[in-house]
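Quiz preparation item.
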């Protein structure tokens, strides 16, 4: 039997005091709409043509392969800022090297590739993380009726304290066990070296995500608290610093200027000390390893690691409940998952 997934009820909820609302997500792709918020727009000159694409039921990698085939270019010359869900209606920017605007205008659209818009030229290719976040419009069907008061309590807590920054299930594959192979590769250099670099990094990143999720789960009750020995992240620029005076820093956390973090282990990713460090040590011990071994493995595998916020801010939330249909609108920063919001509402594992 595979281990519990991140969506299982064994993974703690921040809003555990609010009863489950139930419901069905992604009944159709149109129930899950995502629009990428650009970090910048093209300057008007350069070899990279920026376009905006709206698609339905089409993953970002499949979109890249489709455009590469239609434009007769290598997939490596197409840049994206983020990966978007396949079972959704999504809008995102891409950069195309050496492609003319009129070529894009001539491309056909269909029920999966809904629209293409030329934005202009830019000097640089789009790269992962080059976006300001994602705007979501989500529909949950068959929610418990007359649950407005519970919803208000739930969203008040998420807005005040933040959304648990769990990694979503995408990294763990259909079986939910990619992290297990990642753990094996960390211990087996010979097997690791036989794999293509991008493939072994993918599985090891899945293990990073698994370790991080376990740490978030252990700190769910204090997800908005900073302690002596924590590494805190600044909300405005992502910079991290060690917490030496928690009584001074806690008001900043209350204002969401900073947040406590957990490790994405690697050769240079620091580990917490004090009480937060004890939690991190305990989690990796439960997994049969140590921070030192994980840092060493990261160095051998060629990735530095980083710290990741334990929570994210729920921005510009709007919601309405009509009968049993709940509609949500909000935006999240890059690298965070809307499914972490949905699971707090639905609170069930199927």
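Solution:
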């Amino acid at each position: 039997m595979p281990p519990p997934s991140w969506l299982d009820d064994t993974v703690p909820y921040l809003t555990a005091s609010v009863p489950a609302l139930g419901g069905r997500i992604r009944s159709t792709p149109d129930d899950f709409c995502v629009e990428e918020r650009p970090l910048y727009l093209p300057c008007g000159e350069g070899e990279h043509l920026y376009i905006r694409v709206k698609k339905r039921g089409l993953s970002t990698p499949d979109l890249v392969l489709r455009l590469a085939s239609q434009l007769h270019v290598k997939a490596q010359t197409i840049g994206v800022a983020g990966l978007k869900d396949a079972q959704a209606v999504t809008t995102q920017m891409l950069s195309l090297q050496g492609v003319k605007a009129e070529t894009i205008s001539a491309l056909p659209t269909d029920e999966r590739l809904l629209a293409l818009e030329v934005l202009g030229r830019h000097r640089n290719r789009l790269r992962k993380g080059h976006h300001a976040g994602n705007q979501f419009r989500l529909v949950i069907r068959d929610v418990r009726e007359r649950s407005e008061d519970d919803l208000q309590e739930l969203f008040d807590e998420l807005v005040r304290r933040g959304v648990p920054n769990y990694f979503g299930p995408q990294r763990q594959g259909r079986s939910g066990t990619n992290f297990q192979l990642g753990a094996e590769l960390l211990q087996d250099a010979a097997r690791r070296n036989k794999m293509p670099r991008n493939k072994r990094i993918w599985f090891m990143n899945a293990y990073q995500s698994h370790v991080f999720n376990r740490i978030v789960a252990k700190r769910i009750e204090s997800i908005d608290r900073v302690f002596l020995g924590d590494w805190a992240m600044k909300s405005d620029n992502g910079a991290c610093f060690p917490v030496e005076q928690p009584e001074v820093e806690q008001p900043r956390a209350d204002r969401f200027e900073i947040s406590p973090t957990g490790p994405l282990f690697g050769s240079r990713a620091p580990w917490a000390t004090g009480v937060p460090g004890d939690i991190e040590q305990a989690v990796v011990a439960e997994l049969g390893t140590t921070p030192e071994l994980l840092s060493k493995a990261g160095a051998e595998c060629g990735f530095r690691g980083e710290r990741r916020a334990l929570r994210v801010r729920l921005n510009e939330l709007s919601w309405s409940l009509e009968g049993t249909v709940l509609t949500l609108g909000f935006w999240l920063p890059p690298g965070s998952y809307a499914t972490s919001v949905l699971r707090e509402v639905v609170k069930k594992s199927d």
